[in-house]
Structure formats: structure tokens, C-alpha cells
Design brief:
Elements (H helix, E strand, L loop, with lengths): L35 H16 L6 H26 L8
Helix pairs in contact: 1-2
Length: about 90
């Protein structure tokens, strides 16, 4: 069983992790697949937290990893939305 993480910005929980929503927004709970907007908000928050953490520390490394995961997840969600555009436009 995972322990709650008290480090700044460590809110992203990969599949299989014990989710602990950090908001009252029901869209951000474990039973909801995050939207591109959700992922973008989490990504931006992690980048803000990274700016406040000492470089080359375990917390900094975890935030860097979280940002990479969020960036990839956001890109996949964005590509999925773009490919499902019924107008066929790529804008």
C-alpha cells in the first residue's frame, strides 16, 4: 500500500497507484479518465512546483518524471481529440 506523498506537486497517480484526489472537483477523482484540460492543469501545476524545488534532489527528480508522464498523456489525449475531429480539420 502506498503512503501519501507530502512533496509539492506530486499529485499524478499512474494506473494502479492509490489515488488521493487533491481537489473537490469530482472530475479529478480516480474513477474519472482525465480530460486533456485536466492533464494540462496537472502538468502546469507540476511545472510550477518544480520551480520551487531544489534541483538534483529526489523531489526534483520525481517532479521531472511526473512532468514527462503528464506531457505524454496530454499529447496522447490531444492527438486522440484531433483524430476524432468529424470535420477532418487538423487545427
Amino acid at each position: 500500500m502506498s503512503q501519501p506523498n507530502d512533496e509539492p506537486g506530486v499529485s499524478f497517480r499512474p494506473n494502479g497507484a492509490d489515488p488521493e484526489p487533491e481537489t473537490d472537483d469530482p472530475r479529478m477523482d480516480a474513477t474519472h479518465d482525465p480530460t486533456a484540460g485536466d492533464l494540462l492543469r496537472q502538468w502546469r501545476a507540476a511545472e510550477r512546483d518544480l520551480a520551487e524545488v531544489e534541483p538534483d534532489t529526489p523531489a526534483w527528480d520525481r517532479l521531472q518524471h511526473e512532468i514527462e508522464l503528464l506531457r505524454a498523456s496530454y499529447q496522447a489525449a490531444f492527438n486522440s481529440l484531433s483524430s476524432s475531429d468529424p470535420t477532418g480539420s487538423s487545427a
